[in-house]
Specification:
It is a single chain. With 67 residues, this protein is α+β, with helices and mostly antiparallel strands. The chain has a single domain (1-67), classed as Double Stranded RNA Binding Domain (2-Layer Sandwich). The protein contains 1 helix and 3 strands, in the order βββα. The chain has one helix spanning 31-48; strands at residues 6-9, 15-18, 25-28. A 3-stranded antiparallel β-sheet has the order 1-2-3, covered by helices on one side. It starts with 5 loop residues before the first strand and ends in a 19-residue tail after the last helix.
Length: 67
């Protein structure tokens, strides 16, 4: 199963990783660690709450006015 990972660098160091299909979120000191932690967290989530009939996420960008 292929899922989406969104990784964001934190100001104080490290990364936050989010899987939008399940809502699982985790962190790590490096990109690789954050992604590995997200994979583990998502696998554990899916053991309890399997995805049924889901389609791939669509990711895009958009702009907002800067205040």
């Amino acid at each position: 199963m292929t899922l989406t990972a969104i990784l964001t660098q934190e100001k104080d160091g490290g990364y936050v990783a989010l899987n939008p299909e399940t809502g699982t979120t985790t962190q790590g000191d490096t990109l690789a660690e954050a992604l590995a932690n997200l994979k583990e967290a998502t696998e554990l989530y899916l053991e309890e709450f399997p995805l049924v009939g889901s389609s791939p996420s669509l990711m895009t960008t958009f702009e907002v006015a800067h205040a």
